[in-house]
Design a protein that fits this description.
Number of strands of chain B: 0
CATH superfamily of chain B: MetI-like
Number of helices of chain B: 14
Number of domains of chain A: 2
Helix content of chain A: over 70%
Number of strands of chain A: 2
CATH architecture of chain B: Orthogonal Bundle
Largest sheet of chain A: 2 strands, antiparallel
Strand content of chain B: under 5%
Strand order of the largest sheet of chain A: 1-2
CATH superfamily of the largest domain in chain A: MetI-like
CATH class of the largest domain in chain A: Mainly Alpha
CATH topology of the largest domain in chain A: MetI-like fold
CATH class of chain B: Mainly Alpha
Oligomer: heterodimer
Number of domains of chain B: 1
Shape of chain A: globular
Structural class of chain B: mainly alpha
Helix content of chain B: over 70%
Number of helices of chain A: 12
Shape of chain B: globular
Strand content of chain A: under 5%
Radius of gyration of chain A: 24 Å
């Protein structure tokens, strides 16, 4: 009887029931939190671990040797520079190519819009490995393998669909009355673009930039088939370190890799609603 | 200025072709060309190359379907396709089972729910390889979880082998790809008007029945949208099974191994084509059969 009264009393925001159900809820949440967080903890501890052998909960002693290895032996600064250069190029190419198309799809009459949108989104629908082999062959014949531009072009195939999707939705949502007011008040198209369209499209633009960066920075498959000694990126370097069995060095590189991701995560939580980013993230 | 405004309004205002489409079709086409050309060059053409390679015999002349018939008549290759699909379906089911209770809890805005929301996003932002490495270390035979199990269950015989097994891959995939399902489920559940559920409750429906007949059907579009993404990503997972799959090689790993290690581009390309077809077919099936709300929604 009391349970009924409690349930009826909390209409808008039902409270957790007492006793058992609360226990189950918090056990579930705790398990979820541990499930998500523990791999990060494992990497953090491994990256500074020494004498960590069978049966020990924590390593015997701590060391910064693996970071030293990562920076000096695997040339981490150079590799990191490659990752950032490629991500920067990917952002530039995706925006330059994607924004005009997004404008057309969002604000102009386009025949067969749905077909076109499906085609543009197709690279996100089929797994990258299905066109990675062909891309690699094409790059060999165009001499694009092992160039920053080449790797960035490969990444753009995955970033472009997202930029078009987000920006066309952004442009479609621009307030027509504001644009009309700008026109009526005598602003030329450039003034209107800078003072009206740009500020209104800023959230979409920010989302595009952030997620193009994440896509490129984290992309593995398409990097693996187009990279070379001069374009080694952090992802491939991590893979090579794991493949060589240096889990400690790989962990140290991973910790470095985590830094931009965590910063972005915090930025995103502030700026963008998570539902909007689905489909834009994640290299396989 | 007012006259001008009036004239514009009378001419139809925003939305008429003259106001919205300066330059007309030619401009629209010119705006669309860069992206279409780019994808033609770096997405559709590579697929064409892959297809071409898959039907070219080893000596380079003529056309053959040999690679495809080899794949289709090989129980081993069918096994690989089944493994890839099975892992994707398993991950999707587990993700939904995880997402629904989590969404129902988070919608109550309990203390710390914002931190939890941030936590859900975390696997999305992190390179799959990094998390796979963390999970490998964690579930290792000497890892923390096995240490924990060996203390809690002293009668168990030896450490659990999780890494490099199929249950292990499911644990890893769920970690990586469930956030897509969780986020859309959460936003769908939070979009439900609590009064609708309240009405069912007041009408005498038991909590389970409210959930089955009201909450779940209303949240279904969101669950569906996210689980398609989870399915797709799990189906195409490459880096994780590459380092954490051991002897289990799903299609992407097999494709890469055939091409990069054995230099058998014809077979690798044929497998890639098979994978693309299976992916598109699976999505078509999924969207078709999940478009109906779950059973009992009418009740």
């Amino acid at each position: 009887m009391t349970a009924v009264a409690v349930a009826a009393g909390a209409r808008i925001r039902p409270r957790l029931g007492p006793g058992l159900s609360r226990l189950i809820t918090y056990t579930f949440l705790l398990a979820f939190v541990l499930y998500v967080l523990s791999p990060f903890l494992a990497i953090l501890v491994t990256s500074v671990a020494q004498d960590w052998f069978g049966g020990r909960i924590l390593p015997g002693s701590l060391t910064l040797r693996w970071f030293d290895w990562a920076f000096n032996v695997t040339n981490l600064p150079g590799v990191m520079a490659n990752s950032f250069i490629i991500a920067g190029l990917t952002i530039a190419i995706s925006l330059v190519i994607g924004i005009p198309t997004a404008w057309a799809l969002g604000r102009r009459h386009v025949r067969a819009r749905n077909v076109l949108m499906t085609l543009i989104l197709l690279p996100k629908t089929v797994p990258p490995i299905t066109f990675a082999l062909g891309l690699s062959r094409e790059f060999y014949s165009f001499d694009l393998v092992d160039t920053h531009l080449g790797v960035a072009l490969a990444h753009t195939t995955l970033a472009l669909p997202f930029v078009v999707l987000i920006m066309s939705a952004t442009f479609a949502g621009l307030d027509e009355r504001v644009l009309e007011a700008g026109r009526v008040c005598g602003g030329n198209w450039f003034r209107n673009l800078v003072h009206l369209v740009l500020p209104m499209a800023m959230p979409g633009l920010m989302a595009s930039v952030l997620f193009t960066f994440v896509t490129s920075f984290n992309e593995f498959t398409l990097t693996l088939v187009t990279y070379g000694p001069d374009t080694l990126t952090l992802t491939v370097q991590t893979y090579l370190a794991i493949g060589d069995g240096f889990l400690e060095v790989a962990s140290a590189i991973s910790v470095v890799l985590l830094v931009p991701s965590v910063i972005l995560l915090l930025l995103i939580q502030r700026q963008i609603r998570p539902e909007n980013i689905l489909g834009g993230v994640k290299g396989l | 200025m007012a006259v001008q405004l009036l004239r514009r309004l009378r001419s139809g205002g925003p939305g008429t072709s003259s106001a919205r489409h300066p330059g007309g079709r030619a401009v629209t086409a010119a705006l669309l060309v860069p992206a279409i050309a780019f994808l033609a060059l770096f997405f559709f053409y590579p697929i064409l190359i892959t297809f071409g390679t898959s039907i070219t015999p080893a000596d380079g002349t003529g056309v053959t379907l040999e690679e495809y018939s080899t794949i289709l008549s090989s129980p081993k290759d069918w096994g690989v396709i089944a493994l890839t699909l099975g892992l994707a379906v398993g991950t999707t089911v587990i993700s939904v089972l995880l997402a629904v209770p989590l969404a129902l809890i988070l919608r109550r805005r309990i203390r710390g729910h914002q931190a939890l929301r941030l936590l859900v996003l975390a696997p999305l932002m992190i390179l799959a390889l990094v998390s796979a490495l963390g999970l490998l270390i964690l579930w290792d035979r000497n890892g923390w979880l096995n240490l924990l199990f060996s203390r809690l269950l002293p009668f168990s015989d030896g450490p659990l082998q999780i890494d490099y097994t199929i249950p292990g891959l499911l644990i890893f995939y769920t970690w990586l790809y469930s956030p897509f399902t969780i986020l859309t489920t959460l936003s769908a559940v939070e979009g439900i008007d609590p009064n609708v559920e309240e009405a069912a409750r007041v009408s005498g429906a038991a909590p389970w029945r409210v959930f089955r007949s009201v909450t779940l059907p209303l949240a279904w579009p969101g669950i569906r949208a996210g689980s398609v993404l989870t399915f797709l990503l799990a189906f195409g997972a490459f880096s994780v099974p590459l380092i954490a799959g051991g002897n289990h090689r799903p299609l992407p790993v097999l494709i890469y191994t055939e091409a990069a290690v054995f230099q058998n581009f014809e077979r690798g390309s044929a497998l890639a084509m098979v994978m693309a077809v299976v992916a598109l077919a699976a999505i078509a099936l999924y969207t078709r059969f999940s478009s109906k709300p779950v059973r009992g929604s009418a009740g």
